Structure formats: C-alpha cells, structure tokens
Amino acid sequence: MRISGPEHFKLTFDAKRCDANLSRSANTDLPKLYVVTANRELIYVGVTKRPMRARLYDGWNANGKSGYHGYAWRHTHRQADLYVWFQEDAPEGSLLDLETVEAEVAFLVRSMGQWPCGQTEIHFHPSGIEHRELAEAIVRQSIGTTPEKDP
After folding, report:
1. Are the beta carbons of 128 and 93 closer than 8 angstroms?
2. Quick one: pLDDT at residue 151?
3. How far apart are CA 68 and CA 47, in angstroms?
4. CA distance to 41, 90, 93, per residue, from 31 (Å)
5. What is the spatial distance between Cα 150 and Cα 96, in angstroms, rounded to a whole number?
6. 143: Cβ–Cβ under 8 A, 6 or more apart, which residues?
C-alpha cells in the first residue's frame, strides 16, 4: 500500500454547518482514510473516494431518510481537527485496504478505553501486519499516542 499524508485541516462547525478550508488534493476522487479528533481524542475514522468537501457536506445534511443520519459528532462538538491520508495505489479505486485500516484504527482506540465516540459504523476485513502498522501510525500521528503492547 502506498499511502501519503496526512494533510491536516481545522474544522469549525455547529450541527447545521461546517467551515473547512480543504486542499485541492483532499477534493480529488483518490481513496482516502480520514480521522477526526477533538481535544486530542480520536472521535471518528472514515474512508471515502469522494472529494472531502462532498463527504463532509453529506455528513452535515443527512436527514435519515435513506438510513444515514450524518456525523453524530457534529452535535457534540464545535471544532475538530481533520487528518486525511491518501492511498495512491488502490486497485481500481478499491477501498478494501483503507476499510481494513479503518477498523484497525477503531480497534486501537477501543483498546485505549472506548470506541471512538462519534463512530456509527465500521467495516471489518481480515487484516495483515501492514494494515495494523499503518493503523498504529495513524493513531500516533493524529492523537500522539498508541496503546501499550503486551510484552
């Protein structure tokens, strides 16, 4: 897996609107894994192939009609940090590897205490050492720590 990033963005928002100054690369169709943190706590991890601006828009404007209610954390926080990683070598734009890393990130956060507070769904796939090591790096880069390993 060839991953670049993270790119870091500040989000300011309320339950109805989000302000973010995103880069051109964040608004491409390249597969992305993104992490949202608040007060050095990882509160959400997600993946998308869509431009981040469109993905955030959907998370703020969902009404539950299709079963999706949007980002839960938009109701509990007012500002957050968004970190975005890009998979440059995804076969045919597949999200499989990034979904695997997404689950490993959520698991690492859970092993430090509790699931990410804004997480509403997760995709599980068999993981390899590459996925788990990348998940550790992502958690470390976004909140500055990872869980202790058993000896």
Report:
1. no
2. 46
3. 15
4. 24, 7, 6
5. 28
6. 37, 40, 41, 42
CATH number at residue 76: 3.40.1440
pLDDT at 143: 93
Residues of the chain with pLDDT under 70: 149-151
SS3 category, 52: helix
Contact status, residue 3 vs residue 89, Cβ threshold 8 Å: no
CA distance 137 to 141: 6
Asked, for residue 150, whether it belongs to a domain, the answer is no
Identity of the amino acid at 117: C
Q: Write down the pLDDT at residue 149.
A: 63
Is there a cis peptide before residue 6, judged by omega within 30 degrees of 0?
A: yes
Residues of the domain holding 128: 3-143
